[in-house]
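re: that chain from earlier
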Amino acid sequence: MGLMLAAGLVIAFGTTIIIKQLQSVQQVGNRIKKTNDNIELIRKSLVNFANINGRLPCPANGATVADTGISAPAVASVNCTNANGIVPWVTLGISQSTTLDGWARKISYRVYDGLAGLTQNNGADMTNCDSSIPFPPATLVAPNVMCVAGHTTSENEYLNPLLRPGFTVTDMVTPTNQNAFVIISHGESGSGAWLAGGGRAPVPVVGNVQEYAHTQVSTTFYKLPFSDPTVASTAVNHYDDFVVYMTIQDLLKQAGRSARNW
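^ sequence. v structure.
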């Protein structure tokens, strides 16, 4: 009788462990799904914003406890106030919960600004560019080539990577250039993420080039396989960030802001 009872306890104990493990796996899966779903909603909202406004919004301030969700500046601007900030949910007209990842941390947002950037008036708009004009001579360069109402600007000139380089994202091993924006969840570790309750999680060590770059004002970002769970979050080879990006050309095409044959 005693042996049977002991065996039953062992089975019950083992079953409990298995159930807890399955629940843990399911919980992780749910968090990953929520993160991916929210990032996709943010991406679509940015495309929609470009469709309506002909530009992209600047990030919001991630450091504020009372997250206003308003881009800074709130209007079209050459330079953004918080270039290493978060998704401006109020400006985009989406819910605040949409801009949190599966671990309830703020999702980061990086946008290509500056003289040739997309946050200024008509910065993300090629509708006045002429797609029929051939690539201009090398002498026709400027730091902020925009499509003007006279339709004298070539589509190729606007998209010249020397004039409008955008962000670079190393996707696995392939560098993808001329990106308009990057959306980042700092993953399960949350290293460097702005926190919903205020403050910021510890920033990755400088030696962790990839995750550290995702917390800074950077022009180069990385989309890599997740490191093994046994790798400490403080290690230089740790990586668990979720990264989604979009090229300038794809953004303008999806936003209905491509050049036309005038």
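The helical segments are 2-53, 89-92, 155-158, 209-213, 248-254.
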